[in-house]
Predict the structure of MBOAT family protein.
Amino acid sequence: MLFNSIEYLIFLPIVFIIYWLLKNNYKNQNILLLISSYVFYGWWDYRFISLIIFSSFLDYFVGQKIEDALDKNKKRWLYVSLLSNLGLLGVFKYYNFFADSFATTMSTIGWEVNSLTLNIILPVGISFYTFQTLSYSIDIYRKEIKASRDIVAFFTFVSLFPQLVAGPIERASNLIPQIEKKRNLNVTLIKTGIFQIFIGLFRKVAIADNLGIYVDSVYGNYEIHNGSTLLVATIFYAFQIYFDFSGYSDIAIGSAKLFGFNFNRNFNFPYFSRTLTEFWRRWHMSLSFWLRDYLYISLGGNRKGIVITYRNLLLTMLIGGLWHGSSWNFVIWGGIHGLFLSLEKYTFSALKIKTFNALGYIYTFIVVLIAWVFFRAPDFHSASTILSEIISFNYGSLFIGNINTFINAILLLALGFVIDLKIFRTNIPLEDYGVKFSMLKLSIIVSLIILLLCLFYSTAENFIYFQF
């Protein structure tokens, strides 16, 4: 079920009403949320509900074993969780990729290998809920949290529908305590939640989807376009993926608020960053902090000398790139970020500074833009061709396509940028911004957004990060 679908607009109010009718019994509310979450996920493909149930059973059981075991056995149970969860993720997401890569490598040396690929579908959201359950097991092993003994609460933590498919990747330390206690109907949370849901819909449906029309038309026929057109399409894509994914996160966080839950922030205006380091503290924060806490620090972080620090940064970003998809393009995307993060760290150390001046905004955006080419292009050849054309500066007339669609994309992008800048300069998180408005003002804002959605609705449906 998609957040931007009619089904969700019917599903959400129904669950909301029944949920608060059960307000005197939070355990019954949890049962409702669990059933609703499986319905939400099963709307896409009911067969893969079994994977979520398996992961939930596994980590519920293993978490208690880790907590109860003697020190010498704790690591064994942790390995059970790591190998089982990563094994499932590897089979569904990466087996065909590595099988194809192996066959291609062998063919280059004259050894033809029969096809080793499997006819399997990538379950939506498997990367997200796998990371979520892994962090739970690791946190118990590190003695940072206690194992949950409430099976319904834990299953709800794993599958809670607002964050099930594409995050934010919630930590057990934040979400499970909220699930295991009574929630009260909070008008402030509902106001801020409704505001954030509609901002998210505006970002996705009005801005991202209209930018995507131009991006798809150019990147789908990149061979016939000149550098100026490819540059504009890449800039559009940078904002398309931002408004698409931040819009999804807004709807997820806002939906959770309607049920009394506070999710962690996932985007903090990343394009207002003066360094790449700052960008990653603002972009997909739940993933970047997960990679920092469970991968970078586990590799040694910056505790073992500068060379090892650079190695850890590069490895973390390479694996972070691979997490996004089974393609070498994503690995290269991660490698670009890892390389420049290492260069930044070296520069800051050599010059004894903490950040760049205003030119840092331009530098950061250029690096991010270059990396996005590999993220968006279907393969390495097309990405390198597009990038070569852009940096050749042999620009010609700009391809416009449908003039009305192009103008709509420009106007909506400008409006989205102005709204972001306004909220950014107030220094109030978007998650709390709705509290500024009375019910009358909120109703007017929501009505205006609905009008914009009707005026600029496009036929696009899926969120970009569903493929990861």
DSSP finds 19 helices and no strands in the chain. Residues 144 and 374 are 38 Å apart (CA to CA).
